[in-house]
């Protein structure tokens, strides 16, 4: 999870048994967006964010054919925390990491 994500989302997902790694926990909270997406890809994690800059980076990589592990975006003001938790849990249950390669998905589902 990017640094912009509300901490309650990570806590709620963990409570439901979903594996979560935040940029803060990984010590990567100071990385720029491309480097953070590279780190998520190296670890095999889809990156969840509320930062629109990642939408630009994802689109750039799609156009350039540069692989990345996937981005899930939710607008911070439009998607409630509980809905993010519900939707991310569904995605984590139904999709394997290869299903999200080079994709940008939006919440709510």
Summarize it.
This protein is mainly alpha-helical and 109 residues long.
* Estimated structural class: mainly alpha
Q: Please state the oligomeric state of the protein chains shown.
A: single chain
How many beta-strand segments? Answer: 3
Shape designation: globular
Helix content: 40-55%
How much strand?
5-15%
Write the layout of secondary structure elements.
Layout: H1 7-15, H2 23-26, H3 33-43, E1 47-49, H4 53-64, E2 71-74, H5 81-94, H6 97-100, E3 104-107
Parallel strand pairs: 1-2, 2-3
Quick tags:
6 helices, three-stranded parallel beta sheet, globular, 10% strand, mainly alpha, 109 residues
Describe this structure in words.
This protein starts with 6 loop residues before the first helix and ends with a strand. The chain has 109 residues and is mainly alpha-helical. The mean pLDDT is 96. Strand 1, helix 4 and strand 2 form a beta-alpha-beta unit.
